[in-house]
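User: I'm curious whether this sequence folds into something compact or stays loose and floppy. Could you predict its structure so I can see for myself?
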Amino acid sequence: MSTPRTPQNPFHAHADLTRQNQLNPLFAREGEATDFPLGVLPDGESLPETAYQIVHDEAMLDGNSRLNLATFVGTWMDSHANRIYAETADKNMVDKDEYPQTAAIETRCWTMLAGLWNAPDASKAIGTSTIGSSEACMLGGLALKRRWQHARKAAGLSTEKPNLVLSSAVQVCWEKFCNYWDVEPRYIPISLEHKVLDGHDLENYVDENTIGVVAIMGVTYTGMYEPVAEIAAALDRIQETTGLDIPIHVDGASGGMIAPFLQPDLAWDFRVERVASISTSAHKYGLVYPGLGWVIWRTVDDLPSDLVFDVTYLGGHMPSFALNFSRPGAQVLLQYYLFLRLGFDGYYKVQKASQDVAVYLAGEIATMPAFDLWNDGTDIPVFAWQLTAGYTDTWNLYHLSERLRLKGWLIPAYPMPADLDEIVVQRIVVRNGLSRNLAESLMTDIRDAVAYLDALDAPMPTEGMTHAFTH
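Assistant: Here's the prediction. I'll summarize afterward.
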């Protein structure tokens, strides 16, 4: 039987630590000069400077986020935003009684977005902030399912076996939604002729149990837009022949904060009458630190009221519609800061700068005999390419990804979705912070890596690379 430890007197413990560390150089202190346990809570305390340095040094081993061209997530904000973040990190978004001004700012933000996305009347729209666009998609999907259930019950019909129609290139959050909420996913496969879900063959996938169709503004695999207006037109034709009235949720994780500024005439938002809801990821091209998303419904009626809870125990009555409960309020304030700081013109300039770099990089990649472009970065600032057929049998894009990692660049290689999974592509995501000068340095490194691989006499091993370097 083990003997319980007797806690050391906190005053004496602090005095001992002070005596032990006050004259020692930082990296020779107790704690710095020895190991902390990795998986066990330490027995005693340490100086804040020591604990800070340990955490700081371990975080230093992560990659350089500015060179991570795999992620869509923002990695830079200015010093004023950082000050707001530090000052408001303690705010709990759900506690609207304690933080009523933060709640008011949240409403201002989604009202601004409703106007940006051309809601018929922004004052009659309804929205909420979320942890990210995955939660926003989940809420949009839940509203589709519940509206379908209400309509079926009102007609005296079964509410069993709901289904949702999506592209095979859909982001994994939609697979999660269908799995978690017992909705059958019906994937329309993309192909070389139909690189995105464009309404082709849609009539073979929808039926009376279809709760909605998801249109993606910026497919994760390639960055291409799915044509929302064409999808809606196909659904109009289906309604004319079958009577099925099927709504659209637009997953605007990235494009929701690109299209309004760079493609203002493109009809993808609430101008398309079938669009019932739109979600976006504020920590992507909304330019906010993670994690923040938004979801907005065209009107209050598009969000079933029985999904909204009235919460009282935090000190006042407040509506709550979210999968998460307590969550940060700081990111909402950061979004408001950016809306005030940049305005429409500022967002245009930032997004255009990213697009210009993406188009430059895509153009340079297109000049290389080794590669065939999949798209050119003129939708969201994202593009992908594949290895030219017959170019080489000694290396592949996984090897190129590995070579570029040696220079610090993270550019993933991965197979396309089902039915095209024999095609491997590489993708670059251009975010705010990747300057033209950095892009030119990247092209130098890509050309050097290709020259190195081309000079190999024997095929490179590929075992394990699909797992190590895939998206």
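Summary: Residues 330-366 form the longest helix (37 residues). The two ends are 50 Å apart (CA to CA).
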